[in-house]
């Protein structure tokens, strides 16, 4: 069984894994600036899911599923892909490694098969998706946005939109938003002192 799984993983690495050149190496790379891994991952995930829907539908039809089963399976499939895109965007943002994401992609394609071989009859796809979303949700509070273009706000101050969004989202996890600009926002607008550049 181990040899079979290694062979399957290697096959996934050189087939599905090469998709990472486009999904992470190009699209995620283009979307990360000013957005961070969470927003970029959602955007890539939706495109990635739509791209795979025709193939997934064909596979489900070959398995003899009826229309209602196919619809439910496609929803679960799309949710899993979006979660994968967010998780992989997190790794790519920190490493800029396409190869690492190829390995992650191949590993998660191999995981459901591993679960089925270890526990025959287990809902492998459901378990894999739950695992993915558990990891993604726990990563949510860590807001990671790269500096975006500076634009004037209503007061005429030049504000770094990416910086401002990161500060405001981080504050929202700690206490309700205040209409008063805090030190973090003033820093993004370039009107705070160097010592004020923190989430306030």
Fold and architecture overview:
The protein has helices at 2-14, 20-31, 36-62, 67-95, 98-118, 124-139, 161-172, 183-188, and strands spanning 150-152, 158-160. Helix 2 (20-31) crosses helix 5 (98-118). Helix content is 68%, strand content 3%. The longest helix has 29 residues, at 67-95. The protein contains eight helices and two strands. Strands 1-2 form a two-stranded antiparallel ribbon. With 200 residues, the protein is mostly helical. The protein is globular and about 45 Å long. It has two domains: 2-139, no CATH class; 150-196, no CATH class.
Q: Could you list some keywords that capture this structure?
A:
200 residues; mainly alpha; 2 domains; two-stranded antiparallel ribbon; 8 helices; 2 strands; globular; disordered C terminus
Number of strands: 2
- Side by side, the strands of the main sheet go 1-2
Helix content estimate: 55-70%
Sheet/helix structural class:
mainly alpha
SSE pattern: HHHHHHEEHH
Oligomer: single chain
Number of helices: 8
Percentage beta strand: under 5%
Give the mean pLDDT: 77
Question: How are the SSEs ordered, and which strands pair?
Answer:
Blueprint: H1 2-14, H2 20-31, H3 36-62, H4 67-95, H5 98-118, H6 124-139, E1 150-152, E2 158-160, H7 161-172, H8 183-188
Antiparallel strand pairs: 1-2
Short description:
This protein has about 200 residues and is mostly helical.
């Amino acid at each position: 069984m181990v040899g079979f799984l290694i062979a399957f993983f290697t096959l996934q690495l050189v087939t599905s894994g090469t998709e990472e050149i486009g999904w992470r190496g190009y699209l995620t790379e283009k979307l990360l600036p000013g957005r961070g891994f969470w927003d970029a991952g959602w955007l890539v995930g939706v495109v990635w899911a739509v791209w795979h829907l025709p193939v997934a539908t064909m596979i489900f039809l070959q398995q003899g599923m009826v229309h209602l089963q196919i619809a439910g399976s496609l929803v679960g499939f799309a949710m899993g892909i979006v979660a994968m895109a967010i998780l992989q965007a997190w790794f790519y943002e920190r490493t800029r490694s396409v190869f690492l994401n190829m390995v992650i992609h191949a590993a998660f394609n191999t995981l459901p098969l591993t679960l089925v071989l270890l526990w025959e009859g287990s809902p492998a796809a459901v378990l894999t998706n739950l695992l993915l979303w558990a990891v993604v949700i726990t990563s949510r509070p860590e807001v990671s946005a790269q500096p975006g273009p500076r634009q004037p706000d209503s007061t005429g101050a030049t504000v770094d939109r990416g910086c401002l969004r990161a500060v405001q989202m981080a504050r929202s996890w700690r206490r309700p938003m205040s209409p008063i600009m805090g030190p973090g926002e003033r820093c993004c607008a370039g009107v705070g002192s160097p010592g004020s550049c923190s989430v306030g």
